[in-house]
Each structure stands twice: as C-alpha cells, then as structure tokens.
Amino acid sequence: MQGPDTYYGLDAWRWWLSEAPSDMRKTRRSADEVADTDACDVRSFRALIKLVAFLNVMNKSDILLFRGQGCDLPLLPSLMREKWTVPGTSISVPLDGERVLYFEELSQVCRRVAPLLVGLLPRHEGSARRRRRTERAAP
User: Fold this and answer.
1) Are 120 and 97 in contact (CB under 8 A)?
2) Of the four listed, 3, 41, 54, 91, which is most buried by Cβ atoms within 10 Å?
3) Contact in structure between 38 and 61 (CB atoms under 8 Å)
C-alpha cells in the first residue's frame, strides 16, 4: 500500500534490521494498520533511540506520537532544556547560557557527519535523487 496516508511502522523497522533493502515502499501501511500493531518491547534506551530515529527518518512529514508513556512531560529537544546530562554519567552541562552557540556548532557537526553517513541510512537514495532533481531545476 502506498499513498499520502500511509506510514512506515514496525514491519518496516524489522525488515530494515534483517535485510536493509534499498526500497522499502512495500512496507507502508494505513494509519489504522499501524495503530493496530502490537506494542514493541524495547529493552534498552539505545534500542529505543534506534527505533525512533528510523521511524522519524522514514515518516519525515509526520509527527510521531508514542503510547505507553507513564506521565506527561514537556516536549523539549535537549537543547531547549536547562541542562543536558551526559549519557551514562551523572555529569550535567548547563545549557541556558550558551544555547545560541550550541545551535551554531550543531550545523557544523551536521555538515561534517552527513558525508560519513552517505549510503548507510534508509531513504538516502531517494533523498539524493530529489537533491539532484532540485539542483538541475535551479536557475
């Protein structure tokens, strides 16, 4: 199933993990099918981040909503919080004073990391084709 009201879900994630195919369109499902999918048991924070990152990349035009959260928390990206805790440690870094600097540095990091990931991410080929089409169409 394909179309504007179809989404990549856990079937796509499982197929990506097992085979990493270059074309995953056949795993798109309707919103009802995705909503009816059984919950996914994630056993580590690292596994959760990988799954969420995949779904976010594959459904980039949509906002992800999660079931099973024990309480409501403010929806803030890390850079908007007062402090950031270094993963795996008890060290925290205050963010409120240098937020603009962090955003400026983030764009430099993205420019350096993006070339390292070429060909290693789902949907990369489609993004490259769109970019080439846009570059050719530019005046």
Assistant:
1) no
2) 54
3) no
Largest CA distance in the chain: 52
Query: For the whole model, what pTM was predicted?
Result: 0.49
Output DSSP code: residue 139. Answer: -
Sequence-distant (≥ 6) Cβ neighbours of residue 60 within 8 angstroms? 123
**pLDDT tens figures, 37-87:** 887 888 777 788 888 888 888 888 877 766 555 655 555 566 567 777 887
9, 33, 86, 129 from 29: Cα distances, Å: 7, 6, 37, 24
Alpha helices in the chain (DSSP H): 10-19, 31-35, 45-58, 99-113, 124-137
Domain range annotation of the chain: 1-68, 78-139
Q: Please tell me the distance from the alpha carbon of residue 113 to that of residue 117, in angstroms, as a whole number.
A: 7
User: Quick check: 125 and 133 in contact, CB under 8 A?
Assistant: no
Q: What is the DSSP string of 19-42?
A: H--S--GGG-EEHHHHHTSPPP--
The 10s digit of each residue's pLDDT in 30-43 is 988 888 888 788 87
